[in-house]
């Protein structure tokens, strides 16, 4: 789902009430207490496991799935703890230091390389229940993301996310466009292709002049074509990455665990100059225009933006926007000849401090099974990692009148680029964030990223 880099606010989440499921819900978010790694006994002498996650929207589904697990495994009692994204990582880190964390927890690709360094998570391949899971159980590429440099798996895929375009059909109609006009678009970093033509049509200045009409004032905008959240980071998951990927660019010299970044690549720099150059054209909000309280979905709802690139974990949020006639369109095809979305996913990891790793492995294996994945899928919150789970989610979205194929087609067709799975993620962000901010503020050109890239690559020497 999450998916922005873990040091920012993470996935855009909204708290929702817990519906259904009777698995015990921990109160760590409210009390700040740290529970021991399965050290206490559950009811009637059963083994108690602690399972942590951050996504409030997924809590009902996981409560239901874990209920089923406990029915089938009466010797294990599972306590679920959910807390907000930032609190979650603070408490996870503190729990490892104190030796009092969860047995199983939702892990993030931007975090687990550091956990590997610290030896606080265990390889999963040694557990029979997990080793028996066939390689084709999950969407292609997900297992690879959770495989360490030693060839062992440290997380079992639980869900995945891709990027597509969200829009309000009323905004399109008001601009004289129809949903089909957002299909089959092309893009290039020189002139933006037919995608930029649509953006110009959707933008409108305070006098009512559209971006493709004479007299349009890019400094006085009533509605931007493309919405943007408050921050844009070094992964650009739902901002610039689809454009850079569609030139054939990749983050690093290897698919995973690369040691040389490619922020000095001319295609990458041209893509960023085009994307952030939309500010000068009045098509993208300037840096600081909208804060954390006015994310892209609020801009769509308030008529401040016409369309937005959004991750699949945001489908429910957009679908619930009052007054918005939601539509979902595919990304434009880039110079490689087709769209390319970032491919990211979450996984379940087992703590090295857990006193009940065998029981924890049984829980992880179950959560990765079709039975559990279908339960999660039917909640229509995320796309579970397995084919069966994805199918259940697609059917659930369809029952709500939503065609989510612009998200799932990227995976089916292999039109994806991987999240940068590397060491030194925190240090990379510290180096690169000022560059992205300055580019958005129009203080620099993307060619200046070459010097920043050199600093990043020195981290791997």
Automatic annotation (TrEMBL):
Keyword Chaperone: no
SUPFAM superfamilies: Periplasmic binding protein-like II (SSF53850)
Domain of life: Bacteria
InterPro entries (UniProt xref): Bact_solute-bd_prot1, SBP, TAT_signal
Record bears the keyword Cell inner membrane: no
Record-linked CDD domains: PBP2_TMBP_like
Keywords attached to this entry: Signal, Transport
GO cellular-component term (any): cell envelope
Subcellular localization: Cell envelope
Family: Belongs to the bacterial solute-binding protein 1 family.
Protein name: Sugar ABC transporter substrate-binding protein
Organism: Brachybacterium endophyticum
């Amino acid at each position: 789902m999450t998916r922005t880099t873990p040091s920012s606010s993470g996935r855009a989440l909204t708290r929702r009430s817990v519906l259904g499921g009777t698995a015990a819900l921990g109160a760590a978010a409210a009390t700040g207490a740290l529970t021991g790694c399965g050290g206490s006994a559950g009811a009637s002498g059963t083994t108690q496991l602690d399972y942590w996650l951050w996504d409030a929207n997924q809590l009902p589904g996981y409560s239901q799935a874990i209920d089923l697990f406990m029915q089938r495994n009466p010797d294990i009692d599972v306590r679920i703890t959910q807390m907000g994204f930032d609190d979650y990582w603070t408490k996870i880190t503190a729990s490892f230091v104190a030796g009092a964390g969860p047995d199983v927890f939702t892990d993030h690709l931007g975090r687990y390389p550091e956990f590997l360094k610290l030896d606080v998570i265990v390889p999963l391949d040694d557990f029979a229940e997990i080793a028996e899971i066939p390689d084709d159980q999950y969407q292609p590429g997900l297992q690879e993301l959770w495989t360490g440099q030693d060839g062992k798996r440290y997380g079992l895929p639980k869900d995945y996310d891709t990027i597509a375009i969200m829009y309000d059909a009323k905004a399109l109609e008001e601009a004289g466009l129809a949903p089909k006009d957002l299909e089959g678009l092309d893009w290039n970093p020189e002139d933006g292709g037919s995608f930029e033509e649509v953006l110009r049509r959707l933008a409108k200045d305070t006098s009512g002049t559209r971006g493709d009409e004479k007299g349009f004032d890019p400094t006085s905008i009533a509605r931007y074509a493309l919405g943007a959240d408050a921050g844009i980071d070094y992964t650009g998951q739902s901002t610039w990455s689809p454009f850079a990927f569609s030139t054939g660019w990749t983050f690093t010299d290897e698919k995973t665990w690369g040691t040389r970044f490619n922020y000095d690549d001319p295609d990458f720099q041209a893509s960023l100059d085009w994307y952030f150059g939309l500010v000068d054209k009045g098509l993208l909000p300037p840096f600081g225009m909208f804060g954390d309280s006015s994310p892209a979905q609020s801009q769509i709802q308030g008529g401040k933006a016409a369309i937005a690139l959004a991750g699949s974990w945001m489908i429910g949020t957009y679908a619930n926007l009052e007054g918005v006639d939601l539509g979902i369109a595919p990304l434009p095809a880039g110079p490689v000849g087709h769209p390319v979305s970032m491919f990211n996913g979450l996984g379940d990891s087992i703590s090295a401090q857990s006193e009940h790793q065998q029981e924890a492995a049984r829980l992880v294996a179950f959560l990765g099974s079709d039975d559990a994945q279908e339960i999660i899928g039917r909640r229509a919150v995320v796309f579970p990692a397995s084919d069966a789970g994805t199918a259940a989610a697609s059917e659930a979205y369809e029952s709500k009148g939503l065609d989510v194929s612009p998200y799932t087609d990227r995976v089916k067709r292999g039109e994806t680029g991987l999240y940068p799975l590397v060491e030194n993620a925190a240090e990379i962000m510290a180096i690169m964030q000022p560059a992205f901010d300055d580019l958005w503020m129009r203080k620099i050109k993307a060619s200046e990223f070459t010097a920043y890239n050199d600093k990043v690559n020195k981290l791997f020497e």
